[in-house]
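Sample pair:
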Amino acid sequence: MWLGLDDTDSLDGGCTTLVFHELLEALPCDYGEPRLTRLWPFAAQRTRGNASLSVEIYTDESIVEWLNDYWKEHILPLKGEISISTHSDRKQYPSDPGMTLFVEQPDESHYWKAVRGESSIIEGGHQWGGQGRIGAAASCAWRESNPTWEGIAWRKGLREVSEESLTKVDCMEGTFLCRDPRTNRGLIAPRGPCPVMFGVRATSQKVATMATNELIHGSAQTIGHRVFKTNQASGD
C-alpha cells in the first residue's frame, strides 16, 4: 500500500518532512524507503515548501482505522496555519493537510501533471483532509526512475551547523548543492523558522547517509534525522 502526506506548514513554521517522520516512527507496520517529491512550485495554494512525502507500507486495509485515529490526533490540528510574507506580494493560504492511502500506486500521469503544472484532487483509495491530498497522491504516483537522495535533520533548539562539517560534506564525491558557487555560502540550512536543521543532497543513499552523519556530528542538538529518496535535480 502507498501512504502520502502534504501541506502541513506555513511561513511561520512547521515542516511536512518532520510530520511525516513522526508518522513513520509511530506506524505499527513495516515500510519501505521514504520519498520526498518536489512538485510544481507555483501552485496557487502552496503554503511554504513544494515538497510532498510518500512511502510504501507493508500491511493491509486494517491500517485504515489506525491512520484515521492518528490523523485526528496529530495532523488535523495543523490545519489553518497561516502568516503573511514580509518579502513577497504572493497571496498566502492557510495550511490544508492531506493524507492518502492507495492499495496500488496511482497512475503515473498524476505525478507528471503535479510536477509540471496546476493539478487537482484525484479519486480513489482512502483520503483525509483537503488540498494536501493533491501532493500526497502525486508523491505516491512517482515511479522513481531517476532518483537522488536527501538527508534531513530536525533541530531541538538553535540551528547551528559547523563550517568544518559543511566543508567535509562539500568535498564528498556524490554530494551536490551544498554551497552557492557564486558566494560560497552554505545552502544546506534554511533561514526561516521551520524545524529543519539541514538538508544535504546526494546522488546515492550511501553518500547521503554519510553526509548526514557528519553534519549531525557538527551540529547543535537534533531531535531526529532521516534519508529520503527524492526527485530533486533529476529528469524526474
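The mean pLDDT is 92.
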